[in-house]
Amino acid sequence: MGMKRKMTWKSMIIPSCYTAVHRGLSESEDDERRRLSKKGSSQRLSLSDASNPSSPLSIDDLSNSLVGPKLHIFSFAELRTITHNFASSNLLGEGGFGPVYKGFVDNKIKPGLEAQPVAVKLLDLDGSQGHKEWLAEIIILGQMRHQNLVKLIGYCWEKEYRLLVYEYMARGSLENQLFRKYSAALPWSTRMKIALEAAKGLQFLHEADPPVIFRDFKTSNILLDSDYTTKLSDLGLAKDGVDCEDQPDMSCIMGTQGYAAPEYVKYGHLTTMSDVYSYGVVLLELLTGKPSMDRKTGEFLVDWAKPLLKDSKRLCRIMDPRLEGLYSAEGARKAAALAHRCLNRNPKRRPPVTEVVNGLKSLQDFNDVFTAPFVYVVEDCCGEEAKKGKDERVFEGNGLGLGGLGLGLNWKNWRPISV
Question: Where are the domains of the chain?
Fold first, then answer.
């Protein structure tokens, strides 16, 4: 893949990450650097420390004194080699940051580096994110380690290029597993495992000092390993919780439509409870098998499904038909009630993520069992016959084959009928 060089980053680099490299430090600046380095030994460096123009902290400081033992620094040539020149056959996907490629590293690339597949994320110079988001991921993932956060192996900063190297997650994103047309349906127990581990990752961020607000929690930022171990990724939009508590900011609302909390979208008020709302949307997606927004109609999943979450008699109307009735009715009821609490429009009435984790732990022992016999009535939505309400097709469900019919149903095309 030919690489484009359209611009340099010098004019866009955060002052504290660039100017200190090119000038000598005064005595006061040297004291500040020692203070930050000392802080890094007992308390993690915050995003505000790195972005504060008065701080002399540079990317070299991040590498050598704070996150050096945990991260490898790669050259662009090394990353081009391990991805076979960013070959299209190694392309894993593309997001707001840029394309992601699969590669392979070993101790021949970097001494002491374990042989393993990796994911290499290349910043798109024309994309919606930039140096600030790249640096945020290094600051957070370079210092914070948890079994439910994706592991950052290293990074590259060379000329205008900004790249990040992560552990490879074999099953990709939860978004692909849930919504890809020909993917196998996730069993109920697997969905609850994913829900719990994603909540644990969020809990770790919220309980950090200072707390970290994810700000873009969604299914595409939840990655799955071969055994469905769940890890959060893409923290480039994250913010320190202490910076956001009483400082609403309407100038730069970031996040994803359909997931962002209403108080953040409307007023710019960002707290850890904003993440809890986004988590509620993801939990709702796991229950329904539907994305956060219907691309055809523009309708939000929350608006459609939330009214039914606390009604146990009508809850079956929104459960994912690809489960084919194989889920615990009691487990679904409890998960739906938890989602309803997370989606409360009043952030003060949402449960803290620790309470979410505790609630999900109790749902791990429910087996995948038939809730009841069921019939799906699928309305033909094509042509004049659909407008006249004719030509309905009925499929009887016995746990076999319905998920593989490939009907391409939207939210309103199906409804289960208890028999």
Answer: 15-167, 172-361, 374-418
* Calpha distance 359→351 (Å, rounded): 10
Does the pTM of the predicted model rise above 0.90?
A: no
The pLDDT of residue 40 is: 43
What letter represents residue 322's amino acid?
R
Burial 313-343 (b: 16+ CB within 10 A, else e): eebbebbbbbbbbbbbbebbebbbebbbbbb
Terminal Cα distance for the chain, rounded: 57
Ranges of H-type helices in 2-121: 27-42, 47-51, 59-61, 76-82
Most confident of 38-42, 224-228, 240-244: 224-228
Q: Which two tokens stand for residue 236?
A: 């480039």
Question: Which pLDDT tens digit goes with each residue over 78-135?
Answer: 999 999 999 999 999 988 788 999 999 998 988 888 999 999 999 887 765 678 888 8
106: annotated active-site residue: no
pLDDT at 378 over 80: no
Q: What does the alpha-carbon distance between residue 281 and residue 296 come to, in Å, rounded to a whole number? A: 19
Catalytic residue among 49, 106, 126, 216: 216
pLDDT digits (tens, 9 = 90+) for 308-354: 998 988 999 999 999 999 999 999 999 999 999 999 999 999 999 99
Shortest CA distance to 133 belongs to which of 265, 277, 12, 7?
12
Torsions phi, psi for 318 (to 5 deg): -110, -5
Whole-angstrom distance, CA of residue 83 vs CA of residue 340: 43
Q: Which CATH architecture has domain 172-361?
A: Orthogonal Bundle (1.10)
Q: Please identify, in words, the CATH class of the domain defined by 15-167.
A: alpha beta
d(CA 57, CA 80): 29
Taking residues 275-287, report their average pLDDT: 98
